[in-house]
Design brief:
With about 800 residues, the protein is of the alpha+beta class. Helix content is about 30%, strand content about 20%. The protein has five domains: about 30 residues; about 200 residues, Orthogonal Bundle (Penicillin binding protein transpeptidase fold); about 280 residues, 3-Layer(aba) Sandwich (Beta-lactamase); about 45 residues, no CATH class; about 90 residues, Immunoglobulins (Immunoglobulin-like), CATH 2.60.40. The protein is built from 22 helices and 26 strands. The strands form nine sheets. The chain has a five-stranded antiparallel β-sheet with strand order 7-6-14-13-12, with helices on both faces. It has a five-stranded mixed β-sheet with strand order 20-26-25-22-23, with no helix packed on it. The C terminus is likely disordered.
Length: about 800
């Protein structure tokens, strides 16, 4: 048998080789993929609702094909184009014979007899002339396509690439372009209208062929009824539906996100957005935009995300609808952060044991190597609880804390938490880093707050830390943004520090300029913070609950500042309205494992020292055990009637009353006592008692080794510098000496106008008790004063 077979192969080797060659060629006739056309960028929300789309690079509306074919589309297309589609091998001999007979009979081509498979091949061959030779090629390729693809795949290929008039290609694009809905939601009349278009796409031209298109659609509806696919009532109701007059505009519900994803590798995205929330949030921003534009504020941006997943629910890159920079995606833009980073510093200080929630921090005029921060309201507390300093967003305490924590260390912490815009070294930002001296994006900062919330939630639930909790937000559904490489657990802020930070951010005690915050439309519990950049250019508001985090930015894309453009007045109202459309959630669970009980000095807020009389036992972060013991109490010696201070030079020790007294440094005391009526000044010394040098006075300006500028008025005259001192004794007299020369004597209000020349100077203050204070400063030159 084998010999016979080999002999037959040898005798017919040329014919056999030819047959093998033909078969091999036939197997490789079909290219993979069949179509290479550019696709439109299309974005959907998490539920499959269309958010936006833009034309492909060749100017066509061409969406990707669906995985499944809607039943109405399937039946109308097959009824009109190829009712034997599921039964033929790629061509229909009966249809081809009938078409040939009709064409011969009429003397011209009036019917092609092509199946859907053959039409798919013709579409892929891009406008080849309709000749007999081309028809044969289509037939051969159609049979090959049938061998390589399932019937449903072929039908899907056809529906995704068929022309539907104008620059519309594919059933999915056509459904949205002509009826403003997804293909699976089309009515029978709408599906029938689209089914007839690939055969005659010019019928959809606005204002033309309306009657012919209507007639073809109704003919197809009758055909569907005759086939038993729709009942008479459905057919008659479908007759009454109008055919589209003109294309429908594609939705623009997330235009900036569409532009962003349009630069990516994909053509179609299912995003994490919630279309319903996106629309409601858009309405809120539009309402506020109408009000803000009268103050010359033209741009707003907002982002809302789920805390647990990090999925973005709302992405409004710029709510401006005019020519004022509305094309800029503010969510990704770098803007001056104002005070929005202060909670991170507060948490870091707690975590480091450098402060406790109620410990006093300095709030007086300061000058650090030429940097002289001021509070927003221009006033000072002298000393204030750290938590209140945060909730009132005071600038001076934040700068003092940053100096103690370390600028480079804080910059590295922010980068570790996800602030990608900090690309310069720490020295570039300096102490202004905490007041808006750096730029951040709304997306980064919102993600950073989301990360802190996740850390707190997961630790309260499991007692463990997960470095992956600190990560960017997600935009594409089903994909989780990875944490930054190299992040370790040691780089995270502790849950207890976050807990106390959020507690401070939820406090109701806001400063005077923020009194209207409580009327923003929500009473729910939210940890929130606002920020305003220098020059009133950027207004920020960030808020978080255990379930959601939201960020709002308000300003002008071109950086123009406007009076009244603050985070509290412009951004916070938007933030609270956004939380009003979100479901409420329970407050964060307390991280009990990281809290310890400690005895705290009631006046200073530090760990109670031996001289602290008034004490409270409070929960503090575990790291707070390392914090400073109260240094603000001192023992003073009084006369038996408590009216005067004395010392052993004027009264026997046995006759003295020894008392613990809460005493602040002179400058802090001067501001503090004006705001705290219960603050007790130390009694004066009894006459004849020589005081021990104790630092009863201090200079508010200038600070030690300060470099100052003395202005020159517009008239050209030498300007003045106002020097100011404070003294614990309200009746004390201070004698001022500059460079060894007596200048002035002051009482009650210790302010002196000086006219120092350029160079180094020595200022000496002596009070009427003989206490002396020496301060050195340098005059760097004179500036022209730009106003009176």
């Amino acid at each position: 048998m084998r010999i016979v077979l080999l002999a037959w192969i040898k005798r017919h080797k040329f014919r056999l080789g030819t047959a093998i060659l033909v078969c091999t060629g036939y197997l490789f006739l079909i290219r993979v993929p069949l179509f290479h056309d550019p696709m439109s960028t299309v974005i959907f929300d998490r539920h499959g609702e269309l958010l936006g789309a833009r034309v492909a690079s060749d100017g066509q509306w061409r969406f990707q094909g669906s995985r499944s074919i809607p039943e109405k589309i399937r039946r109308t297309t097959l009824a009109f184009e190829d009712r034997y589609f599921y039964f033929h091998p790629g061509f229909n001999p009966v249809s081809l014979a009938r078409s040939a007979w009709l064409n011969l009979k009429s003397g011209k081509i009036i019917s092609g007899g092509s199946t859907i498979t053959m039409q798919t091949i013709r579409l892929s061959r891009k406008g080849k002339r309709r000749t007999i030779q081309e028809k044969v090629i289509e037939l051969v390729l159609a049979t090959r396509l049938e061998l390589s693809r399932s019937k449903n795949e072929i039908l899907n290929l056809y529906l995704s690439n068929a022309p539907y008039g104008g620059n519309v290609v594919g059933i999915n694009a056509a459904a949205w372009r002509y009826f403003g809905t997804a293909s699976q939601d089309l009515s029978w009349a709408e599906a029938a209208t689209l089914a007839v278009l690939p055969n005659s796409p010019a019928l959809i031209h606005p204002g033309k062929n309306r009657n012919l298109l209507l007639a073809k659609r109704n003919y197809l509806l009758r055909k569907l009824h005759k086939a038993g696919w729709i009942d008479r009532t459905t057919m008659e109701l479908s007759y009454s539906e109008a055919i589209p007059e003109k294309p429908v505009a594609m939705p623009k519900r997330a235009s900036h996100l569409l532009d962003r994803l349009g630069r990516g590798p994909q053509a179609e995205y299912r995003t994490t957005l919630d279309g319903r929330l996106q629309d409601r949030a858009s309405d809120i921003l539009a309402k506020h935009h109408k009000l803000l534009k009268y103050n010359g504020i033209h741009n707003e941006a907002a982002i809302i995300a789920e805390v647990e997943t990090g999925n973005i629910l709302v992405y409004l890159g710029n709510a401006g609808n005019d020519e004022n920079g509305s094309e800029v995606d503010i969510i990704r833009s770098s803007r001056s952060t104002g005070s929005i980073l202060k909670p991170f510093l507060y948490a870091a200080m707690l975590d480091d044991g450098k402060i406790l929630p109620n410990s006093l921090v300095t709030d007086i005029p300061i000058n650090m190597s030429g940097f002289a921060p001021r509070n927003f309201n221009g006033e000072y507390e002298g000393a204030i609880q750290a938590s209140l300093a945060l909730s009132r967003s005071l600038n001076v305490p934040a700068v003092v804390e940053l100096r103690e924590y370390g600028i480079e260390r804080f910059r590295n912490l922010l980068r570790n938490l996800g602030m990608t815009t900090l690309v310069r070294p720490a020295d570039h930002y300096g102490l202004s880093l905490i007041l808006g001296g750096a730029e951040g994006s709304l997306e980064d900062i919102t993600a950073m707050y989301s990360g802190l919330s996740r850390v707190l939630i997961h630790y309260a639930a499991t007692g463990m830390y997960y470095p992956s909790d600190i990560r960017p937000l997600n935009l594409v559904y089903g994909k989780v943004s990875p944490a930054a490489p190299g992040r370790e657990e040691s780089g995270m802020i502790s849950a207890s520090a976050i807990w106390f930070t959020y507690k401070a951010m939820d406090e109701l005690g806001r400063p005077a300029e923020e009194t209207g915050w409580k009327y923003f439309g929500t009473s729910r519990k939210i940890a929130w913070k606002t920020g305003t950049s220098f020059g009133f250019r950027d207004g920020w508001a960030i808020g978080t609950s255990p379930a959601y985090v939201a960020g709002v930015w308000v300003g002008n894309a071109d950086g123009e500042g406007r009076p009244g453009l603050t985070g509290i007045s412009a951004a916070a109202p938007v933030l609270f309205e956004l939380f009003g459309i979100l479901p409420e959630s329970e407050w964060f669970g307390e991280p009990a494992d990281e809290l310890v009980q400690a005895v705290i000095c009631r006046e200073s807020g530090f760990l109670a020292g031996p001289l602290c009389v008034n004490r409270d036992t409070l929960s503090i972060p575990e790291s707070g055990i390392r914090s400073q013991v109260c240094l603000y109490h001192r023992t003073i010696h009084l006369t038996p009637d408590f009216q005067y201070r004395v010392n052993s030079n004027c009264l026997e020790t046995s006759l003295m009353v020894h008392s613990s007294w809460f005493v602040l440094p002179p400058v802090q005391e001067w501001y503090y006592r004006n705001r705290h009526s219960d603050y007790r000044l130390m009694p004066p010394y009894r006459e004849g008692c020589e005081p021990v040098a104790e630092g009863s006075m201090d200079l508010i300006y200038p600070a030690e080794k300060t470099r100052i500028f003395v202005p020159i008025e517009l008239s050209g005259k030498k300007g003045r510098a106002i020097f100011e001192a404070v003294h614990r004794d309200q009746n004390a007299m201070i004698f001022w000496h500059l460079d060894g020369k007596f200048i002035s004597c002051t009482k009650n209000i210790h302010q002196v106008e000086l006219y120092p020349d350029t160079g180094k100077h020595k200022l000496i203050l002596v009070d009427d008790k003989g206490e002396e204070l020496v301060r050195y400063f340098t005059v760097m030159g004179r500036e022209v004063r730009k106003g009176s």
